[in-house]
Amino acid sequence: MYTKCIVREPCPEMVDGLTSSDLGKPDYRLAMKQHKAYVAALEQCGCQVYILPPDTRFPDSVFVEDAALLIGEAAIITLPGAESRRNEIFEMRSVLMDHFDSIEEIKAPGTLEAGDVMEVGDHYYIGISERTNQEGAEQLIRILEKYGKTGSTITLVQYLHLKTGVAFAGENTLLLAGELIEVIDFQKFKRIVVDEDEEYAANSVLINGKILMPFGYPKTREALMSSGFEIIEVDTSEFRKLDGGISCLSLRF
Ligand code: CIR
What pLDDT score was predicted for residue 47? Predict the structure, then answer.
């Protein structure tokens, strides 16, 4: 059960955030509106939401998920592989020190962004990507083991982050898209496969029994609902333009 979430308001500089998409620049005012609705959805899931002020130094700082991994007893400060995002961790560390007694960190030459980490109970799947390297993943596994948890790696070919294409929906079920559909490690789960034209919806997040998913993906919505999942939809079109999805916008604990 999550009781708290941390989010950060988008800053106007977000329009210059990192992206691989050709969807155009985000509309900042619309992004602000969507962010407020996202916060309301987290509250609807029963979480108290801490809203950090915009940080104009970092265009991508709205995507708070990447700067830390929260594992219950400890907060692990990451080391983002994206150069322009690396210093987001300092501010995040001081915020998390108010909430966690144990703070761990990923150290260079390791890199890790928590968008690459998917938690399933006490096991953590770690994507090896352009942002997260083998050394970062190995450091994380050692930290997890200290806390009685385990980790394993999945090598990505195309996706930005592991959770770009997979979400744990609860009930031993994964929502899976694209290159992750055939991954051997995921075959033991019940699988809901996301259609190619709704790939973005694979980045959804389970919060206290409800699945927060992006608005505008009717086939995925229907597949989840007919499997008995409770859904809350939030429009994140402006964050999509920066390769960001539902999970990226919050830290949950
Ligand atoms: C980036 O490229 O770092 C941001 N524009 C998007 C980060 C998305 N974060 C996530 O998937 N956890």
Answer: 98
Q: What is the pLDDT of residue 59?
A: 98
**∠ CA 25-193-224, rounded to 5°:** 85
pLDDT of res. 30: 98
Q: Rounded to 5 degrees, what are φ and ψ at 97?
A: -65, -25
For ligand 1, the distance from its centroid to the CA atom of residue 246, given in whole angstroms, is 10
Spans of the chain below 70 pLDDT = none
| Chain centroid, CA 150 distance in Å | 19
- The CATH class given to the 4-252 domain equals alpha beta
What pLDDT is stored for residue 1 in this prediction? 94
Query: What phi and psi, each to the nearest 5 degrees, are found at residue 2?
Result: -90, 140
Residue with tokens 């799947």: 125
Catalytic residues: 161, 248
The atom number, within ligand 1, closest to the CA of 80 reads 3
pLDDT, residue 17, reads 98
Pick the atom of ligand 1 nearest to 164's CA.
11
Per-domain boundaries in the chain: 4-252
Does any ligand 1 atom lie closer than 6 A to the CB of residue 238? no
Instruction: Report the pLDDT value the prediction gives residue 231, as an integer from 0 to 100.
Output: 98
- Backbone torsions φ then ψ of 110, nearest 5 degrees: -70, 145
Instruction: State the pLDDT at residue 136.
Output: 98
Tokens (6 digits) for 39: 């916060």
242 in contact with ligand 1, CB cutoff 6 A = yes
